[in-house]
Amino acid sequence: MTLVKLKKQHFPLFYKWWNNPVLRKLTSNKFKKITNDEVGEILNKHLYDKDYHDYVIVIDGVSIGHILFHKKKNRKYFEAYIAIGERKYWDKGIGTQSLVKACNIFFRNKPNEDAITIQALVDNHRAIACYKKVGFQKKRIIKCKENSTVLMKLSK
Ligand SMILES: CC(C)(COP(=O)(O)OP(=O)(O)OC[C@H]1O[C@@H](n2cnc3c(N)ncnc32)[C@H](O)[C@@H]1OP(=O)(O)O)[C@@H](O)C(=O)NCCC(=O)NCCS
Description:
- The protein has a single domain (about 1-155), classed as Gcn5-related N-acetyltransferase (GNAT) (Aminopeptidase).
- It is built from 5 helices and 7 strands.
- The chain has helices at about 10-20, 20-25, 35-50, 95-110, 125-135; strands at about 1-5, 50-60, 60-70, 80-85, 115-120, 135-140, 150-155.
- Strand 6 and strand 7 (about 150-155) form a beta hairpin.
- The mean pLDDT is about 95.
- Bound molecules: coenzyme A.
- Coenzyme A binds near residues 82, 90 and 96.
- Coenzyme A binds near residues 96 and 129.
């Protein structure tokens, strides 16, 4: 497994992943189809903004998923996000392995950062189990009308 920095050539994969209803249900409260232009707009911002660090997960030359670290305005910590877009790669330890690797790269590149947070919808048990294996600890539930999320934190 390797982690490759996001490039424009990856954008069509995101169009596919972000419009996959199964994936959207696990990662977000809402499902609205997203256009190619919207995908480009979002990811171009990620490429040029220092508060976004995106990696594509590559297995045997195949790009299968995405890891992002993003610091929102006025937040203390960067938040991680992971989605393996190709279903057949779930439950093989790849999420855990790639998140461990990405967090190590993150802490190495950003020695002043003490911790990373991550969220999952409360009923996304696979994601929560994966994050626990990486070392994230549950901090609190963030309540939301549609579906609450669990906030977890990994300290250096
Ligand atoms: C969440 C995700 C990144 C995890 O990566 P992964 O490679 O599938 O996860 P791993 O194989 O490393 O670990 C998953 C763990 O969850 C467990 N698991 C799977 N389904 C489960 C369930 N319904 N309840 C409890 N545990 C479950 C697995 O058994 C495994 O634990 P184990 O190794 O102790 O057996 C990946 O499945 C994914 O991208 N899913 C779709 C998008 C998503 O949900 N993203 C996260 C939210 S934003």
